[in-house]
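Course exercise 7: structure representation. Students receive a sequence record and must write out the corresponding structure in token form. The form below is the worked example handed out in class, using Oxygen tolerance (607 residues). Read each field label carefully; the graders check that inputs and outputs are placed in the correct fields and that the protein name is recorded exactly as given.

STUDENT ID: A-19
EXERCISE PROTEIN: Oxygen tolerance
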Amino acid sequence: MKRFLLLCLGLTAFVNAKPSLQVDSDRIEAGQTFNLQFIVPIQELPQNRGALRLETRNNFKFLGLDSADQVMRPDMDDIFNSFFGGGGRAYKARVYSFKIKAPKKTGTQDLGTLTWMIGGEANTISSKIPVSVQRSYNDDALAVSLTPSKKSIYEGEQFSVTLSLHTFEHFQGGLQATDMSTGNDFIVHRNDLSNLDFKPVEGARREMKASAKYAWLSPTKSGTLQIPSFKFKYTKLGEPKVVEEKKQMGGMSFSSRSVKQESIETETSTAPLSITVLPLPTEGKPADFSGMVGNYSFSANFDRTNLKVGEALTLAISIKGDGTPGTITDPKLPDFSEFRSVPPENSINKKVKGNKVITSKDIKVFLYPKKKGTFEIPAITYSWFNPAKKKYETASAGPWTIEVEKSDAPAEPVYQAPVSAGTGTSAPVVQKQEIEFLGSDIRFIHPITDKSETAAPHRSVLFWILFAAAIPFYLIVNFAITRKRKRNSNTALVRKGKANKLLKEKFANARTALKNGDGKAFFAALENGLIDYLSNLTNVEFKGMTRPQMKQELSKRGVKEETIEAINSWLEKCSFVRFAPVTASTEEQSQMLADVEKLCESLEKLK
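STUDENT ANSWER:
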């Protein structure tokens, strides 16, 4: 019975063979050529047929057309279908081959429209020919790009850069950033990219895309500035290779062929960005220009205008704007010589709002009037350059009139002794508190014992021995106390003394993060530990400094150039690893921790 069925399958023929469109390749690669075949059974060819026309679109390029008659043989699917009423044997057909070059864009795309002139009229064979274009295995499996929100800005103006990643079907993972430095010409606020969201590309289900703002920057000088290339490494699937193997079995040799694809570790990078930075205009520049560039708001006010001597007066100043991230200069304050003041309180915050980093600064100035009177406080102004309006703007607050009255606080109670009779003078004035103290300190009079004057202590040898020993002891104690007070009053010495202890705490935090698998906390501990250690050793705040300022400051203190470069390299590495979607093994992180510890040991000489 089985033999009969197989015989039937082999003898059944295609009775109703139809024209069809197909490509000659299982994989069409971007930028490569392929053939689109229009297959027409000979018996289906029209008598009065004309030319075939292919109108391409979506950057597909038509290169040429060939035709030939071929014998078409059914595949196993055709034979299986023939069992259910189709056809099965070979037939002769005219094959029209369109040579086409695929576009660079990947994904499923419409190749174009195929028409055939029959009897002088255009007959549409297919109005839409979907073709799946895939990336070559020789090309990068990861495409990265960096796009600025503006390419031409003013010095000090804020702009953002967007990082985009596109993975293709032969991308295998292992993504790691090797260099994401923005250079030394910008003040940077980096975004947290740890939750970068990859989504499928429409029309290409094996491709993924992700995009997010990487950082907000502000140039520190004018001219043509460059953001260097961001570099990444990852793993991809290599080009298929045919491998031939020969085996010997029982005196006979056999050969086999197989296709293998190996994983390859490779690198890719973004194109460097050129930013044109314009200098600020000199026309209309206010004399008290703050140096801020952006859109700002300014307000200032006193908490009251009437007070008494001894009471405090608070001046509250608030400044907010979208200029240099994390930086706002102070306004010029009036002359407060008629008031006693204490160091002001400053608080500065930055927050991403919309597409900008908004920096706000609050200042509180505390003033104490020295005397009674009426004081005129002139207006306080604040100026900035608005790049959107291309002009300088100024905001003003005040003036104020401050009324200060004499304090009516009660005086300290005083005890006045009665006037002595006949003299007209009084006894010294004694405070009430002194009376209370004296009352608790009254000593009783004791009778003098009958002791010989020869028992006086100064006539004893032991007295002079103890007296002589007390002098050096006093000098030693006095020296120790003086040194401790001097050391405690010297902030730099105190910070240096605590530098190693605080560094060990940071490294302990890094080890805890490493143990918990928290990469973000690990690199944050390394970065903060290195910066705080430098600050404690030198008594200079390195937080908030640009890289050039940091290099210059370390160079002044005699740090070697290679050590400075190592510090800069580690800070950059920790910074971009914290904010980029990267992976690092536990072994790599352990090695990084050891390297930073070794670097800190080399900085001991700064002490």
